[in-house]
Amino acid sequence: MIIRKFLQSDVTELSELMRKTVMKSNSKDYSKKAVQRLCDEYVPERLLKDVRRIDIFVVSEKSKLLGTISLVGNRISRMFVLPEFQGKEIGSRLIKYVEQFAKKNGITNLRVRSSLTAYGFYQKLGYQKTRRASNKFVGPIIWMKKKI
Asked: According to the model, what pLDDT value does residue 75 have?
């Protein structure tokens, strides 16, 4: 299993991974409309545009993408692991990788806008709730932070 920077050739598979994960994992905590809005956001064209301003990483095994995480300044974003690979430490590895990457780049505090679905995951990794908010497109979110 390797974690590496996103390549343009990953775009279709990454889009499918993100959309599949949102549909399967987030549907229990969010409305169908919210889930669809998120899926609409993770299209290949948008990912290719975003890579210019966001550090996007992927984890792969045997040339299959299993998960992804992004870093926007000091904010973790778009962390997804395929549903069939959740609970196998892949998400934890992605977080540790991004924390190390951030440290190397002079970042000492990380923030994350957690979904209700991922809140417990981030808590276990030492992230602390700073506030609960509502996103006009998807609904409730939880802002969290961690000193690294």
From this structure: 97
